[in-house]
Amino acid sequence: MKTNVKIATLATSLAMLFVVGGVQQHSVAHAATFHKASSKTIKSKTSATYNYAKKMLAKNANGFDSKAATIFSKKAYPASGAADGYSDFLLGLKANGYKFTSSQKSLVRKNLVLKSNTDPAILSKAIVGLKSIGYNPAKYRPYGSKKDVNLVAQLYKSKISKQTTSTLSQVLIALSTGSYSRPKSAKFSKTSLAENLASLQQSNNGWAYDNQLANVDTDTTAMAVTALARSKSSAKSVTSSMAKGQSYLKAHVSTNGAFGYNYLGKTILNANSTAEAIIAYSTKLSTAKYANSSRSLSSQTASPMVAMLSYVNSKGTIKDSSSDVYGVGQVNLAIGAYKQAQQHRSVYTIK
Prior knowledge:
351 residues, mainly alpha, two-stranded antiparallel ribbon, disordered N terminus
């Protein structure tokens, strides 16, 4: 009897480890149960992150401690005018029903730094951010200017051949946020860009920020999968690459449902990597179920949604996130993507 009690206690302890988060575990081969996030839990956690994000935007503050920086500021961010992750932050708010005020739109417009030679990555984020708050990036008038500029045409004319995998994904996603016209002088098309991105896939079916097999990670892979899906290309090389990328994600989920990045030989599970995977899963009906309804590995005890929401603190902040804009923004965006997928829509089709 005592032996059975000890075994039961050990099993319970192991199960708890897998639903809390941390370094990826591999010691349990089969899970007795699979936990899904209930609609009540999703609603409660979304309320926390959504309300916290609203307060951040109202104060233009990247958090509320004594050292918190601003979100939008030309002085603080001379290259872009905004904190890293701001476009996901804005789209995450919109995806959960937020209506931006005139003063908030003006705040963004006054601070974004957009030049004729703006880097494609920065330009892509600006397109997503501006589209999220109601501006047309193909006919946008920068603050203080008397002329409209076509940021989409500018992006199409950018040199992207030597850009990172992440930037190529960002460009493709940005160009998919609306029904934009491609200029005759464009240096690429969405199809050619998708084919280029597909060609950078590594032999293990993932993508790496530096295109090296040893550095493949779920973050870069999830973004690439999302970008390929948004290209809507029917080219076999693209559809095959996307399917392989989804397979990579399904094979690299942790037992507790979370995803992470590799550091010194360990997988560091975190909310942001998990959010990226949820967004990627939500791009297709055939994979959306893996965000919360179905497990992709027999050892999985919880869904990615359960795992991601476990990082949400009571105030709406995200545990272990590098910044509130980045953490709260991506979690809200992932929740929005998941909700949109249930309606057979994409969070990146911004109207």
